[in-house]
Amino acid sequence: MSKDIIDYAVEVEDLTVAYDAKPVLWEIDLKIPKGQLMAVVGPNGAGKTTLMKAMLGLLTPVTGAVRFMDKESKDIRFMKKHIGYVPQSGSVDWDFPATVFDVVLMGCYGKLGWIRRPRKADIELTYTVLKKVGMEDYALRQISQLSGGQQQRVFLARALAQEAEIYFMDEPFKGVDVQTEKAIILLLKEIKEQGKTVVVVHHDLQTVPDYFDWVTLINLRVVASGPVEEVFHEDNLQKTYKSTKTLLGSEV
Amino acid sequence: MTAILSLLNDYTFQTVALGSGLLGLISGVMGSFAVLRKQSLLGDGVSHSALPGVAIAFILLSSKNTEVLLLGALLSGLLATLFIITIVRHSRIKFDGALALVMSVFFGLGLVLLTYVQKIPNSNQAGLKRFIFGQASTLLSRDIFLMSICGFILLSLVVLFWKEFKLFTFDSDYAKSLGFSPKKLNLLLSLMIVLAIIIGLQTVGVILMSAMLITPAVAARQWTNKLWAMVFLSSCFGAVSGVVGTAASSMIPKLPTGPSIVVCISIIVIISILAAPGRGILHRMYRHRKNRLLYKLEGGQINVPTI
After folding, report:
1. Which domain holds residue B34?
2. Which residues cross the membrane (chain B) (predicted)?
3. Mean pLDDT, chain A, as a whole number?
């Protein structure tokens, strides 16, 4: 696989982000290839979530640029409608007065833009994506009654309702049981088959080779980024986690 | 009965009740958003911060017109809100800290200016004190007109931006990722809450105004799990206590209107917190007892120490 002919979905150039004086990301250069399932891996506090938020434009970097490659348009406003986001489920108050349906419907708001109300097509789409994540029976359930895994699936469905080209997911497997994890990964692979790009913050090193095609190892800087078979080995992992212990079970 | 009937026909009562009801309705709607955004105390901060504006408006323009004084209150309330938002954004001080800071400075300044105003000849207090505790009986039909216009604007904005407010209140980061600027929405929503507070100052005053904003919303949240139902119920609770509070103060001599409205809404909130199905304390106690009983019937040990 020669890197020159790859179509890139996202290009990050010289990105530096700091909270107060301390840099959280330092001169990140990263290219995310189109149509790949990519894991972002790194220790706690390595800046994984920050990288994702910076790429989404949710925080202002010190320097650097994020470019979304699209033949039709490079306008960021246009692009926003093509980027799906699954935040960490702990980032919202689940006691908010809303049903599962209400939350998933929010995924359609981006396409609608200001003021316009959801149409029949949006409501149908909401039920379709709820079915995809296996939550159709919970549509009218109050969101405070959901388990952690169900909350994750609701957020996933909400992102699916965006019908985006690129998906950013911040730990979608957190608090999810083995069965649901398998179901979600099948769903992500299905999205990928449609030529879409999926970027996932991931914690379980053992499952990376099974789940993903591409991996980015970060710890303040990008340690390595590339196809899993080329990049994901003991050497790079020890560099990322600054550890001398063996991190991969039976690998390498 | 005849007392109530003659009261209902009384023009002053009609005006004041209409004003208080309107105020309850508007603050009920806006308060729902303030409570859900965990900014319940914003109302308290803004209303206290409006006081120096009232005094300054009087000193500069020497006018006793409610519109003029409320304009001063509006500007000063807005200034305080902007200060709070700026402090939160550009420092490590959290919302509650910034609020307490700004509120106390503004309210202190307001009291100082009020003392100064009393020394101005021909001020005869200018009725400025009514903004501290509120004096609903001073409501005139033109005040009601002003309130109606503000209320209409606020309700239209809520209907128009319903989807955006809901999204932003639930998950502001996600709203931003969809292209809805949280900065603009935050500013708009804060401005709307400020406006709702300002129009209530004359009726219930700076000290009790936050109760009008928060209490109906807290009560409404107990009864429903839907946002639209919460906003609707909250506005009903506000409006009902506005009217009932006014009636109570008209029938019982020397009972001030503002506080009696607040007492009325407080009774609603106490009932809601205790008795609402699902979220109410009584219902939860009942469920707990029932579960223990079921457990016992199934043969469980009831005296297992709980840690």
Report:
1. 12-213
2. 12-35, 41-61, 68-87, 99-118, 139-162, 187-215, 227-248, 260-282
3. 86
